[in-house]
Here is the input.
Amino acid sequence: MQKGFELFEFVQKGDERGHLVVIEGLKDVPFEIKRIFYIYGSDGNVIRGQHANRKSEFVLINIAGQSKVRIDDGQGNETVVALERPHIGLYIPRMLWKEMYDFSLDSVLLVLSSEYYDADEYIRDYNTYVSEIKNA
Ligand code: TYD
Here is the structure.
């Protein structure tokens, strides 16, 4: 089975004014947060991601709407995680293949990352990914 991905439940600091979720690097997620980005406006028939990262770790949070994430370890094991709650984060360590899909119209998928963007640490070809896993 895949190792290392995990669901985090963040504390909801709710009161009569609404909810507030705080995420601090190295406290609520296991890395310093160097980068955030968010994905919205993706149709339900779009597949995003389709890559693995040699260096970056991520936490994905659907802060609005919902989507699904398929995680594949390159050794024949895959898991699908539905993200649909703004205080639940999916931690994805380096070197797992991931695909995001089934976006609802209102989906806003927030991504926290341990690294600055570096296109060279992305593996975008599945066969290359599998062979790097085999040779690891
Ligand atoms: P891409 O990695 O294809 O997005 P996804 O994994 O969600 O399918 O990124 C889309 C474009 O944005 C691509 O041209 C690279 C660029 N990009 C950055 O410049 N910096 C970033 O941090 C990210 C995630 C993407």
Observations:
- The helical segments are 126-135.
- The longest strand covers residues 58-64.
- Residues 53 and 122 are 5 Å apart (CA to CA).
- DSSP finds one helix and ten strands in the chain.
